[in-house]
């Protein structure tokens, strides 16, 4: 038995990774995962706190302490079973979630050193189960006779589907694209999240009874009213994400060679646009100078991908300092190790082109940080007389997204905000349209995978309540007081 004092002295086990000089030219996974011995050793560092603060930091409420206890004893399948009670996509979350600001950020060990590697352990346990659990899945859910339509097969939709199918409802997921997974397949590159892992996680949901229908654009093929009135669904969950890219509105954004990060990453990840015979090729970046505008996780994906396609130089241009960057620290460090150039406190004000309207350069405005804005980060302010020009061949805009208006145009009774997001109760996902729930990016704007899953799970609980009671509004829940009251 290792004492608490001894546990606190144990060094954190770091996950091995590909050499930066090697991985910068391939799409194989960067992080290589823990070994069984390393997983047991890292799990043994856990202090087994009576009140597990790490669990309070998890958006989907995984029983972290319980699964780590099992992992520390080498009972990895039991650990996986515990995780899956609250998280239907552990192999994905273990790879792409920002544990450093969630579960690991709440670990008490962070006060004295480095927190437990919860994300690496979750990934290991999920991978171990996938590779070693040969038991056939036998769903035993008592049917309720209720039908739920889920629009979008991204993380919020998948999490919602997993909870609803286990509640006994009939669940159908509608996906507009030809592959399932939403941002997990079109937005996150292979070297961060292998697509085979996404496919396996979805296959497990299919084995549980979830029906998936691809190439169906809700808003064109069917409206929400069609789903509820004609198709006979009892409830609908909107988890379509935020797929409409934002641009800066500066001169030159319409030149050949300017992409949104959405378009660039979707072509590369989903349509294999880097292959010579691709039907939707991206502008050849081999030997080119690529600049990505932005400082989030999408920007890191968008700048590290051209490097793997043979770009001569790949740079991030970001208007704040590195401290204000919203991207995960691991992604920033990996990008630096791979040779990505960071141009900070800088903002483009114009993109130049040649006579054929192809990008040739960019004018950049130097910035300084002022007082914090509504995001809590210091506001970037232009520095007078600090503009300069750089040569560039390809520009990728990664400054955020808005919800695609296609679906919402066909649902005028679904209230929207000025930003184009759906108005929905944060704790229940209920919208202004009876029977319709919404969560994640379409409500909050761009967010992380795990936050999207949390929204999907909250909506699933609310859908269960609605299907059980038929109650929609607060007024229906609270009875009118009697005259004698």
CATH topology heading of the largest domain: FAD/NAD(P)-binding domain
Largest sheet: 5 strands, parallel
Name the CATH architecture of the largest domain. Answer: 3-Layer(bba) Sandwich
What's the gyration radius in Å? 24 Å
Descriptive notes:
With 485 residues, the chain is an alpha/beta fold. It folds into three domains: 129 residues, Fumarate Reductase Iron-sulfur Protein, Chain B, domain 2, CATH 1.10.1060.10; 171 residues, FAD/NAD(P)-binding domain (3-Layer(bba) Sandwich); 150 residues, FAD/NAD(P)-binding domain. 34% of the residues lie in helices and 16% in strands. It is built from 19 helices and 15 strands. The protein has a five-stranded parallel sheet, sandwiched between helices. It has a five-stranded parallel sheet with strand order 6-13-7-8-9. Strand 11 and strand 12 form a beta hairpin. The N and C termini lie far apart (62 Å).
